[in-house]
Amino acid sequence: MLSAEENDLLTRVGPGTPMGALMRRYWIPALFADRIATPDCTPVRVQLLGESLVAFRDSKGRAGLLDEQCPHRTASLYFGRNEECGLRCVYHGWKFDVDGKCVDMPSEPPASNFQDKVRITAYPCHEAGGVVWAYMGPADLKPEFPPLEWTLLPADQLYATRHVQECSWLQGLEGGFDASHLAFLHRGTDAVNANISPSRHETLRTGFGMIVGTGREAIEGEIRWGSNLMILPFHKVFATRPNGAHMWVPMDDENTMLYSIDFKPSGPFTEEELKLSRSHLHIHTENIPGTDRAVLNRDNDYGIDRQLQASGASFTGMHGLAIQDSAIQESMGPIANRTREHLGVSDTAIIQIRKMLLEVVRAHEAGETPPGLNAADYRARSTRFVLPTDGDFIASVEAQLARQIP
Predict the structure, then answer these.
(1) Quick check: bond before 143 cis, omega within 30?
(2) For all residues of the chain together, what is the average pLDDT?
(3) What residues does 202 pair with on adjacent strands?
(4) What's CA 402's distance to the chain center, in Å?
C-alpha cells in the first residue's frame, strides 16, 4: 500500500504539483489531429493536467494550443474567430498567434505599444501518429519528440480511439499492468484471456521506464512470456495481434483521457482486422456521438447484464474489455485510497511501477533530469516468447533490446 502522502504525490497533476511538473517534461497527447483538420477551422477545448486550453489550426496549417482564457478580461477563446494566422477573442478583438504573441489589439489606441507587452500561455505542438502533442514544460528543456513505434507508421497501419475515464490516471495505468485480472475481469469476452493467472512476474528498468514481464506455464517445462513496455510517464505498449498501445493522459486529478491504439508494423490493416477493432469488444469503446464519453458509462452501470453474468458466458456481464476496465477502475472512486490495499505477489508490476514513479518524481523535484527524455531509448518493442522453465527472462529481454527497431 501507499501512504496518503505518497498517493497524493502520484495522483495530483495540476500546475505547481511535483507530478504535474514531472509530466510537463514530456510530450503530452492533446487531441487527435483530425479534430482540427483544416486551416482556420473551429477551435476545440482541451483539458490537460488541470489546465483549460483551446486548440486550433491557423491559416498556415500550424497547430496551436493556448490558454483558454484571454489575458484581457479572461473571456473564453473557444468562442474566438480563427482567422488570418491567429485566434481572435470576440469580446474585444485581441488576437493571438500559435506562439502566444498578441498580433492585434484593436481596442487600444493606434499609437499604443501595449500589444507588445501582452502574451498568452502557448504550448509548442508536434503532430505524429494522427495526434497533436504538446510540450508544457520549461522552454529551454524541451526534449526531442520520442520515436514511439506506432507514431512512425502511416495512417493505414493505425486504428486509434479515445474516451474519458472518470478517475485518476494512475488507476488506468495500474489496471493496464495488472496481469492477473485478465483471467477474471475479461473472462468470457476473449477466449485468450480465460487462461490461468500468470505464475511468473519480472520487471526491468530501462531508459524509457520499465519492461514488465508476465509468464504463464503453457506446457510442462515451458513458460510463455509476455513483455509489455511501461514508457514514462503514462504509456503502455503491449504485444498482441495487432500490436496495441494505451496512453492514460490526465485531464485533471480526477479525469483521464485514455487513448487506445491498434497498430500493425508489418503493413496496412485488412478490412477484417479493422472490423474487429471497431467491434468495441476489445480495447476500444463506442462513444456518444460528438463526445469522448462511452455509451456504456457510470450513469447506466456500464450496461451490466446480470442474466449474462449468471449464465457464466461472461464473468462480469459487461461487454468489451475497455468497458470492463473503465467500470472497475472508476468504481475505486475519483482517486483510489491506496492506504486500504493489501497487495500480493500478483501485484509485483504495480508495486514496482509505483516505486519507480515515486523515485522519479522525487528526484525531479530535487533537480535531477528525469529518465525517458532520450529519443534513442524508445526504439524497443513489446514481445511474446517461450523460455524453458529455468530460462532467464531478464537476459532474454536485454538481448531483444539490443536488437532495436530500425
Answers:
(1) no
(2) 94
(3) 213
(4) 26
Backbone phi and psi for residue 139, each to the nearest 5 degrees, phi listed first: -60, -35
β-sheet bridge partners, residue 162: 259
* Residue 193 pLDDT > 50: no
C-alpha cell at 270: 485488412
CB 202, CB 213: distance < 8 Å: yes
Contact between 44 and 54 (Cβ < 8 Å): yes
CB atoms within 10 A of CB 392: 12
- The torsion of the CA quartet 284, 289, 290, 295, rounded to 10 degrees, works out to -50
SS (H, E, C) 193-233: HHCCCCCEEEEEECCCEEEEEEEEECCCCEEEEEEEEEECC
- 364, 18 contact by CB (below 8 A): yes
10 Å Cβ neighbour count for 368?
11
What pTM, to 2 d.p., does this model score?
0.95
pLDDT exceeds 80 at position 402: no
pLDDT at 406: 58
Give residue 182's identity as a one-letter amino acid code: L
